[in-house]
Amino acid sequence: MDPFTVLIICLSCLTLLFLWNRSYAKGKLPPGPTPLPIIGNMLQLNLKNTTESLNKLAKVYGPVFTVYFGMKPTVVLHGYEAVKEALIDLGENFSGRGDFPVLDKVTHGSGIVFSNGEMWKQTRRFSLMVLRNMGMGKKTIEDRIQEEALCLVEALRKTNGSPCDPSFLLACVPCNVICSIIFHSRFDYGDEKWPTLIKYFHQNFEIISTRWIQLYNAFPSVIHYLPGSHNTIFKNIAEQQNFILEKVKEHQETLDLNNPRDFIDYFLIKMEKEKHNKQSEFTMDNLITTVWDVFSAGTETTSTTLKYGLLLLLKHPEVTAKVQEEIDRVIGRHRSPCMQDRSHMPYTDAVVHEIQRYIDLVPTSVPHSVIRDTKFRDYLIPKGTTVFVSLTSVLHDGKEFPNPHQFDPGHFLDEKGNFKKSDYFMAFSAGKRVCAGEALARMELFLLLTNILQHFTLKPLVDPKDIDTTPFVSGIGSIPPAYELCFIPL
């Protein structure tokens, strides 16, 4: 049988399978655009800006609709009411992790972020317990952040007010804070391994947000064997996991079962306690993936938010001036900022929230899935169906945040200038899968931003009105454009 005939038969079988699946799901899944065989709705979506496409579809099909990425149906939740109803009111049902093939290939269903079932429940519960023991959300971790903030200030001074790309230095602080938790150590900014590790974090987040990876996730069985940037992700993660494995081996040699020093020690002790349990979720593979999850998420999201935040402050010098005035009034120039200051600094607090709201760092969150057949409004979503949560539609809601596409700290201030909370602030997602490091990230963003503005004037290289804050890439993440600035000591 010639190859062309085989290809036709395969495509015909796939088409029949697709049509059968559509027939099975008809009357259960929410409405949506009619998909084409094999490719689904891929031609109807702008993969360069999926969020924009989903916003347009929501205007046609409402706040709950279905799109097909290839042959895979995905339910999209759009708007605060739908998102709240799913993630909070029906949180358990929507607590599954949806398919993300490019990373499923390397995590193999373990860790915190991309796991499901007992693996996810036990690993997340254990990790949160250890992170609390290590001081997350407490004064001990605040002290670590303050120490690293001072190191950052000294490193910025060494730029001597010359133009620089802040990416590397901004990543060093959250990376070192995470390292102190998981490795019980920190790296000197001049360490030779340091720039390479930071590069891997930045590169992975950027590549994962590209159109190529969206295609990979839609057609993994085909694209996996093609050349492309997915291979760079696999290579980078392999290097990171080898680094983690080296650290684990060092810990095994010096482990004291009665005196855990860090996250790895706690996990190794748990492994030892459950070594006779063949069903234990606490394995070496899970340890490596869990540490990678904490390491990468704890570094990249905070550093990218800071980098984007400084770009917005360059674009809006009047906002920067107000923050610095509040810093001078509440903190002064001769002591380090602390978390107790935040309650006395409503404008600065509003600026931090507005940065997160405006940049919309992870527009559709990491995919969810339903863990059982779920009746949602007038629909029945079958168990295992992938669910996209449009955080953009919540963070950029025009009723809650007037002029949502403008950077305006007033979105989080009342008429008296006091900080105003909003249920629509879901920058860390919501429900069972809310970011495990939210408390740490909030601390880091406030302390690092205030430390930088306490010691430096931010000087752009172009007129502020010419600064473009449009994301360089917008996919799973919103990546800020590359830029340089000058840190002028005050």
Structural summary, described in words:
Helix content is 51%, strand content 9%. It is built from 17 helices and eleven strands. It has helices at 3-25, 50-61, 80-89, 101-107, 117-133, 139-157, 167-182, 193-208, 211-218, 220-223, 230-254, 263-273, 284-315, 317-330, 346-359, 391-395, 438-455, and strands at 64-69, 72-78, 96-97, 368-369, 374-376, 379-381, 386-390, 456-460, 473-474, 478-479, 485-489. Helix 7 (167-182) crosses helix 8 (193-208) and helix 13 packs across helix 15. The longest helix is centred in the middle third of the chain and has 32 residues, at 284-315. The radius of gyration is 23 Å and the shape is globular. It starts with a helix and ends with a strand. Pfam families: p450. This is Cytochrome P450 2C21-like. Keywords: Endoplasmic reticulum, Heme, Iron, Membrane, Metal-binding, Microsome, Monooxygenase, Oxidoreductase, Signal. Heme binds at residue 435.
Strand content: 5-15%
N-to-C terminal Cα separation, in Å?
A: 77 Å
User: How many strand segments?
Assistant: 11
Helical coverage, percent range:
40-55%
Judging from the principal axes of the Cα atoms, what is the shape? globular
Rg calculated over all Cα atoms = 23 Å
Secondary structure class reads alpha+beta
Question: Runs with pLDDT <50, length 5+?
Answer: 3-9, 22-27
Cofactor: heme
Protein name: Cytochrome P450 2C21-like
Keywords: Endoplasmic reticulum, Heme, Iron, Membrane, Metal-binding, Microsome, Monooxygenase, Oxidoreductase, Signal
Main location: endoplasmic reticulum
